[in-house]
Write a structure and sequence with these properties.
The protein is α+β, with helices and mostly antiparallel strands. It has three helices and nine strands, in the order H-H-E-E-E-E-E-E-E-E-E-H. The strands form two sheets. A five-stranded mixed beta sheet has the order 4-1-8-7-9. It has a four-stranded antiparallel beta sheet with strand order 3-2-5-6.
Length: about 220
């Protein structure tokens, strides 16, 4: 036996329906014009009620989507040129953003332990470039470049190569650690890439064998 879909099922609905019928009867006894005014007012109220419910009841607050975060630590550099006015520093480049370390005094080995945080950029690529410079007086000298992939965590040393001095027996190296953090604060990848694996992947990407996009 089917029930009428429009029949009020809840006690509150039944009570409201009875009150409405009572009001209609009272307005009918007061005059047909007041009855029509009541219906018009009721219709206007219902339209306003459902309009507000559709606007505010279904409204969802959308928070800004957070991006993946990278935390890079520059630990130390070795095999530097220890000469007067050869004060080393590094520039980390990702996308259109450059992050600079402090400048240390000239020495064969220098320690920074400086931490940098940056977010993933649309079109920023999948590679972090590390540039090494010597500062002396009014000039600066480039002494090498290295790259690491951002798709995997990294903890190790990379060799800084100056293309104009390619084949040099001794090149400076810098110890870097990288963490990739998702918007919820979890480390996305715990696999560590070693320098040889990183260099192999970068070479393959340069030759067009792979597509360097975030995994």
């Amino acid at each position: 036996k089917e029930e009428c879909s429009h029949f009020p099922k809840k006690k509150a609905d039944v009570f409201i329906a009875w009150i409405r019928q009572l009001v209609i009867v009272l307005f009918c006894y007061s005059g047909i014009d007041k009855y029509y005014r009541f219906l018009k007012a009721e219709k206007l109220f219902l339209q306003l009620f459902f309009y507000k419910r559709n606007i505010f009841g279904n409204m969802t607050v959308q928070s800004k989507e957070e991006a993946t975060k990278y935390i890079v630590t520059v630990h130390e550099a070795t095999d530097l040129t220890n000469a007067p006015d050869n004060d080393p520093y590094f520039v980390l480049r990702y996308g259109n953003r450059d992050l600079k370390t402090s400048t240390k005094g000239a020495a064969k080995q220098c320690t920074w332990n400086e931490v940098f945080e940056f977010e993933e950029q649309a079109g920023g690529g999948n590679i972090l470039e590390i540039f090494g410079f010597y500062k002396g007086g009014m000039y600066m000298e480039f002494f090498g470049k290295a790259s690491i992939l951002l798709s995997e965590s990294f903890d190790g040393s990379v060799e800084l190569v100056d293309p104009s001095k390619f084949g040099s027996s001794t090149n400076p190296s810098v110890k870097i650690s990288l963490q990739k953090i998702d918007p919820n604060g979890n480390q996305l990848t715990k696999k560590k890439q070693n320098p040889f694996e990183c260099w192999t992947k970068l070479t393959s990407c340069f030759l067009g064998i792979c597509n360097p996009t975030p995994q």
